[in-house]
Design a protein that fits this description.
It is a single chain. By secondary structure, the protein is of the alpha/beta class. Helix content is 34%, strand content 12%. Strands 2-4-7-5-6 form a five-stranded parallel sheet. A two-stranded antiparallel sheet has the order 1-3. The longest helix has 17 residues. It is elongated and about 95 Å long. Part of the 50S ribosomal subunit. This is Large ribosomal subunit protein uL4.
Amino acid sequence: MELNVIGAKSLSVSDDVFGGEFKQALIHQVVVAYQAGGRAGTKAQLSRGELSGTTKKFKKQKGGGARHGDYRAPIFVGGGVTFAAKPRSYEQKVNRKAYRVAIRSILSELNRQGRLKIVESFGIDAPKTKAMIAKLAELQVSGRVLLVSEDANEALFLASRNIPYLHVLDSVALNPVSLVGSDYVVMTVDAVKKVEEWLA
């Protein structure tokens, strides 16, 4: 299939990568797994047995209360937590093949909806926010925009960091969360070739 390149000739790409079927359930699974993998999982609480404190009888035998074990019990203020949280991994296993199919499906849907734009290059050589805003206006993109370059240089990152709705990624860092969270995705020709090679 052919992709329109803004200001240049069309680009021939694989039908599988940019014209595949939209698989919503798989995309949802991959996005959830990607976000889960980013969780720190460092929450930790102390259980009753891990708290410091005496275990001696803290009331006299007669009059109630003495048969309770100690003040570290969860029912007392300052006591341990009943089901104490411990550090854990939230990582979910996703097969490499399924991950690539999900990325292809997202790119295909973006292309069908006209939300994927291809350019020869961004043409940002100086770290100027004004130049980046002018470039976005020229491309006629709005909302949350994702720029994908094969080798995003420092000038490109610096020019875009003060624009809250703009995100810049290197092609090797392309991920499902960034793709589904963008209203428009703008890719360079070199980035398209690199992504196509990865997903083929």
